[in-house]
Specification:
The structure holds two protein chains of two kinds.
Chain A (H helix, E strand, L loop, with lengths): L3 H12 L3 H23 L2 H18 L10 H18 L25 H10 L4 H12 L4 H8 L3 H24 L1
Chain B lengths: L1 H14 L9 H10 L8 H63 L8 H14 L2 H25 L1 H20 L5 H24 L1 H8 L12 H9 L16 H5 L1
Helix pairs in contact in B: 1-2, 3-4, 4-5, 5-6, 5-7, 6-7, 7-8
The chains are: A mainly alpha, B mainly alpha.
Amino acid sequence: MKNEVELRDIVGRAKNKDLKALSQLYEEFFDRIFRYILFRVRRREEAEDLAGQTFLRMMERIDTFSWRGVGFSAWLFRIAHNLVVDWFRGDHVIAEPSDLAQSDCDPEDLIVADESLREALKALAFLNETQRQVILLRLIGGLSCKQTAEMLSLSEANVRTTQHRALKKIRDILRVKIDV
Amino acid sequence: MYEITRLDKEIDKIIAGKNPETSGPLIQIAENIACLNKISPDKNERESIKQAYLTKAAEQIQTEQTVGTVLIRKTFRQTWFNVRRLAAASLIFLMMSSSTVYAANGSMPDSWLYPIKRTTENARLSIAGSETKTNLELIYAKRRLAEAKFLAKNKPALLDSHIDEVLAATKTLKEHTPRSASEAKSIKNVLKEVTELSITSEKKTPKLKKSKITPNVPDPSHGANEETLNKAKIDPVNKNGKQPKETKTSPSSRSR
């Protein structure tokens, strides 16, 4: 992951329509954006498509980006989030937690061997929207607590509390399942 | 609260790829979820998306550059057109004004160009230095004299109105101290000719002379008595040396 100084330099060049800088941004963020979208829409092809669209939109709007507000990562994830929201509005239905195994994004396909990991993935579906967002942005998107707070328009304390509650909820779900 | 903060710090370590310092079920779950980062997009698909993205970016850059170039060219063309138009207009104006001034230089008092000639002369006098001014005044006095001679020969009716101009032009000459003998001679000749011309003019139009020696009409505002005012009013020759068609008298003088 690039540090802040390097990222500022790359973004600065990308704003001047430097192809190399645009390529560097793609390499830096594509996989994280893809995973974030994948765990939201749970369809690999759709996730790849939306991730591609995220970068196209970024390229079109990078002129409007400034470092005064949110950081670049948060700004980019917000683009991805808005695309996902639009995708849901377009008559797309998210797979039910129980149907996750039949969805396009089958845990077996995701090269996830560990049983508990597979369960964690299923448990994400039981979280409310804010909790899921916080967990995905922090643990999958790799955003800091501050960046997550900026993106979701929450306070940092709120983000910390939400992620704590989300993990506790997952633990409770898993415990119940184990008990059963 | 402590647990929330500690969990957040441990999650930061997990994200950075480091091992957490403490363990527990929540940290274990966080580690498990973070393991989902092993999931990657299909390599070929990732590459094709990248190519599409970069191609689109290159196209956009190309379009922006083209639009920018076209805009610059258009602006330059427009500016150049305006400059040319302005230059042409200025040239025409300059040509017209210079040719008008040139034409006006040789005009006589009966010409419509004569006011332009006088305006140009006044403008030149106003910007001239003291030495040049003397020369110009001498030149202009000669011009007035030549104009007066022309009028005396060709249009004597207009001479009366022009003689004041000649006198005004020569008046300043009298105040000058000549710098050379030739200049003094030149001024003397001009003044002499003006005097002769005045005499000739007076002989031709005696009213002119009379008007010039007629005392000015007293200003009623300065407390002149009524008798003096009436005398001035019934004077058959006015200031310009012309006979008034009808002399109006005040009701008070009629009653007398």
